[in-house]
Amino acid sequence: MTPSYTAAEIAAQLQGEVIGNGAVRLTGFAAADRARAGDLTFAEKDTYFAAAEASPAAAILVSGPFTSATKVVIRVANARVAAARVLPLFFPPEEFAAGIHPSATVAPTAQIDPTAHIGPHCVIGAGVKIGARTALLGGNQVAHDSQLGDDVRLFPNVVVYAHTQIGHRTAIHAGTVIGSDGYGYVFDQGRHVKILQVGNVVIGDDVEIGSNTSIDRAALGSTVIGSGTKIDNLVHVAHNVVFGQHCLIMGQCGFAGSTQFGDYCVIASQSGVAGHLKIGRQVTVGAKSGVMRDIGDKETVLGFPAAPDKQAKRQWIGIQRLPEMIVQLRDLEKQVAALTAAAAPRQD
Q1: Which of the four CATH numbers 3.40.50.300, 3.40.605.10, 3.40.50.2300, 2.160.10.10 does domain 99-308 have?
Q2: How far apart are the first and last CA of the chain?
């Protein structure tokens, strides 16, 4: 059944204000260029609002003083935040029936909440605890003595090694590995000897981890992903790394061992961070950066090696001017040579 709400009901959900007919029914949510009759769309700028007003959508979600003679307007404090909140109304998350698939293998000592969903070909180890409404969607392995909280989602082929702790409402996408061995070796008598990695991984509440990401367990102690942190696809987190709460980590980043991050850090794509560093709160690391030193609270760094953003931008501007400066230097060398020749005493 297609969800349907009046504009007034949507506004009440978002603590917004309806301008126009609050009784108009909304049956979907779409961007302006894809909207159909009955849809709700949203606009943050004048150009977007003009496109939304010209679309077949029935109502427009806005922040700011927009008005329309042809569309219902729902005004909220922040249109993008409101869009994120309204999307689940029109696209409710998939629900999974409680129970254990016949092809799953569950150790006798595992404790699985009756409301949990264990999909096909899952393997649940001894002493594992799985909370209420948690869903393992298929091909998952959860090794012994791990704990998964309530409303966790493990998408297909996620592997969770032993002793991992995962908080409530955390989602881990397909192909990700949590708790594999950290990369630890010592050189002895001409060969690299493995240092046993006997720690674990601790993941907080409301974390989301993208596909094909690897988070290594600690050598000793715990690798920690703080509550509210969101990790993109193809990220590697090495042993004993600690992320604070509500960090954002974009795709293809790598973090060497034992580095600690404060809360609300933002690490842009394809960046690398060396080991045993301390990165403060609210730090921003620009894309493709290489962090080789500690960073204080609220700093923004860019480049390789990463430098404070203003310094890095000056360096980039200087590099861009190098070809011009080389030409100028050659001209100056010619002028100096000519002046030197003219000033030299004549030899008759």
Answers
A1: 2.160.10.10
A2: 106
Alpha helices in the chain (DSSP H): 7-14, 46-54, 79-90, 309-343
The active-site residue, picked from 117, 168, 239, 246, is 239
pLDDT digits (tens, 9 = 90+) for 216-270: 999 999 999 999 999 999 999 999 999 999 999 999 999 999 999 999 999 999 9
Check if 168 is active-site.
Answer: no
**218 in Cβ contact with 200 (< 8 Å):** yes
Give the length of the chain. Answer: 348
Q: What is the CATH number of domain 5-90?
A: 3.40.1390.10
Q: Kindly state the DSSP code that residue 334 receives in the 8-state scheme.
A: H
33-68 pLDDT, tens digit each: 999 999 999 998 999 999 999 999 999 999 988 999
